[in-house]
Amino acid sequence: KQWYQRRVREDIVYLLTSRSLSHISMLQEKYYQNQEVELYTVLETITDHHIKDGLVSLMSVASDFPRYCAYELYNSMDGRGTDEGALTRIVATRADKDLKVIKALYSDMFGD
User: Fold this and answer.
1) Is 19 exposed, middle or buried (0-12, 13-18, 19+ CB in 10 A)?
2) SS3 100
């Protein structure tokens, strides 16, 4: 069983780190259709936290980039102080129409 889990982990890491964002999004959908379980759930069980965090972020970007940006904006302003770098990266690199979508999602998700 450990060998199988290690092999699955290696395959998932390879696929998620060598494909385009649209392909990753499609992989997530197909995996759910075939296995009836979210790929996120599989990552929780077969990866260590360093790899898992990176892959979960990558899958979040692939599946819903504006929602990911809204979540990262919240994290950049949550708690003591502000992560100016993260805030600037998100706001400065998005077009106006993207920022409107992110703003609406942010309001829906966090009520601010």
Assistant:
1) middle
2) helix
Is residue 16 within 8 A of residue 59, CB to CB? The reply is yes
SS3 of residue 36 by DSSP:
coil
Long-range CB contacts (within 8 A, 24+) of 92-97: 94/69
- Residue 57, amino acid: S
Report pLDDT digits (tens) over 5-43: 778 778 888 888 899 989 988 988 998 999 888 888 877
pTM, two decimals, is: 0.73
Of all residues in the chain, the percent with pLDDT exceeding 70 is: 96
Which amino acid, 39?
Answer: L
Asked if 44 contacts 12 with a C-beta cutoff of 8 angstroms, the reply is no
